[in-house]
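Pasting as-is:
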Amino acid sequence: MAAGAAGIRRVVPGLVVLAVVAVAADAVAGALPRVDALVVAVGLGVLLGNLTSVPDVVWPGIERHKLLLETGIVLLGASVSIDQVVSSGPVLVGLVVATVAFGVAFVEVVSRRVTALSARSGSLLAAGAAICGVSAVAAVARGIDADRDTLAYAAGAVLLLDAVTLVVYPAVGGLLGLPDRVFGVWAGLSMFSTGPVAAAGFAHSPVAGRWATLTKLVRNALLGVVATGYAVGYARSGDGADGSRIGVGDVWGEFPKFLVGFILVAVVANVGVLSPGEVGAVETASEWLFALAFAGVGFSLRVEEVRDAGLAPVAVLVANLVVVSALTLAATTLLL
């Protein structure tokens, strides 16, 4: 009991900071037309995290932003229409599988044959770009025996592109006048990490945000397949991984378990257990959790880490992003 109370006290200062940033972002977005509060929250977090000396006492709470994001995604399931998902299911799953397969292959080829990156660097970049950003980088690094520096460079490059796409995608979507569902699926297919995907989607519209998150969760579900495939591939090649470094427990440790909660909440909401008022309350809670989480995402984007990544990993990811974005935009426009 005492340990639990102490743990709560440790995170309260940081959560208060995130709440202040979220409320400030909401106020700024309310005063400026066509500015989304979640994007403002990320921006304020980046500025405060990199331009000020953040006290150590607030970091334990700020570092809970991933848990806040995952909880917000779980609650977001209440706003998903299963009928719409079922009607788009085969097409959506097909697009996700094709995009992931192409993305892994494209980054592997470019990193090994065009740049001077090591095989492991290319594999980490491929997983990060094709699946779920830094989480996929960490999961695959375990199975291929990647060293700390290789992991850090890949993660830094992914974080840089996360920051760029968070701004660029909503701008492009507005410029092209993309329909809500098309934009959401496009962002979910081609952007890297879950947080920026959700933020970009909701910056376009609530409907786009829900489709972006749903599509991204389908992509995330392939993490176990890709991580295991890389571990087996490196073990068989004899390239330093002994095959004992990854197992069911390792994959499950990085697997997006909130996907299960998202599905359960969506089922409960769609079978009529919750009243419309209760669904609305859950959606509001999800929105505020997103605001807190995205403020934390901003604090976690460190300029020095991105700078240390170097140009080659970033160049590979930019090439992947341009090609995959163009192809998925064409596919979603034609098929949805």
